[in-house]
Design goal:
The chain is α/β, with parallel strands linked by helices. It is 38% helix and 21% strand. The chain is built from 11 helices and 10 strands. The strands form 2 sheets. The chain has a 6-stranded mixed sheet, with helices on both faces. A 4-stranded antiparallel sheet has the order 2-1-4-5, with helices on one face. Strand 7, helix 6 and strand 8 (192-196) form a beta-alpha-beta unit.
């Protein structure tokens, strides 16, 4: 089943101006982890807002879980799609962590006892159960993003969109956030994750990479396919992932690298 199907999608902020998203088409299968990469101004964040219905397309079609995204379906579709934005400070609504995770549940009129159980469960999943009474302003960037993720996942979405969700975090917060997403995917294999990102290392570890440039899809495929041609990468304003370089060098030295998916695993293999 396709979680997302986009056909000839175009959008411009002013009707007469050049399209920011220009005749874009792609499919995303259920349960996959897809990264959308490209230089600044390539249309990545605009695309994310189109997928959630925050912007109205100029032309083309968007299907979410086989339902067309339109005025009639938008509210039902949004129940299945969660989005995490770039700046965690802009996502907080509640006075405490507990209030913030509960906010979406309150909007859906979930009963108080059930809501309390859900908030407890998801705060534990993201490692924030001891901060439920804390004010968001006292949290680190990584902790804030964990709370934002908990608030979205508490609504049980089938699709999670991350719009540059790690770009404002320090390296530790970025690693923690991506590890958390991977843990959640293991618990819920049918969850589809779409990450708009500048992080090439993250893209290399995803199931599918979609490359945007000037509002158009110029490449789409598995990371190994996208990152094997350095010359094409330069033209797309991308660099070769460091892990990719390490694995290639290890392969030349005779190591079996097919099960290596992180630098830590590469170090472990080299130290055996």
């Amino acid at each position: 089943m396709k979680s997302i199907s986009v056909k000839h999608l175009s959008y411009s902020y002013v009707r007469e101006s050049e399209d920011v998203v220009n005749d874009v088409s792609f499919d995303i299968e259920e349960g996959t982890y897809v990264t959308i990469v490209g230089p600044n101004g390539s249309g990545k964040s605009t695309l994310a807002r189109l997928l959630i219905g925050l912007l109205k397309k100029n032309s083309g079609d968007i299907f979410i879980l086989d339902k067309e995204l339109n005025k009639e379906n938008i509210n039902s579709i949004r129940k299945d799609v969660g989005i995490i934005f770039q700046n965690p400070d802009n996502q907080f609504i509640g006075a405490t962590v507990e209030d913030d995770i509960a906010f979406g549940l309150e909007n859906r009129q979930v009963g108080r006892e059930e809501m309390r159980d859900i908030v407890k469960s998801f705060s534990e999943k993201v490692g924030m159960s001891s901060f439920l009474k804390s004010e968001p302003s006292n949290l680190s960037g990584g902790q804030k993003q964990r709370v934002a993720i908990a608030g979205v996942l508490a609504l049980n979405p089938k699709i999670l969109i991350m719009d540059e969700a790690t770009s404002m975090l320090d390296p530790k917060g970025k690693v923690e956030t991506l590890q958390l997403i991977n843990e959640i995917r293991k618990e819920n294999p049918s969850l589809t994750v779409v990450s708009i990102t500048h992080d090439i290392e993250e893209a290399y570890l995803s199931d599918q990479v979609i490359v945007l440039k000037d509002g158009k899809v110029i490449a789409s495929g598995k990371p190994e396919e996208i990152f094997k041609d350095e010359k094409s990468l330069e033209e797309m304003h991308l660099t070769v992932p460091f892990l990719y370089k390490v694995k290639n060098r290890m392969k030349e030295l005779g190591y079996d690298v097919k099960n290596i998916n992180s630098l830590e695993e590469a170090v472990d293999e080299l130290c055996r």
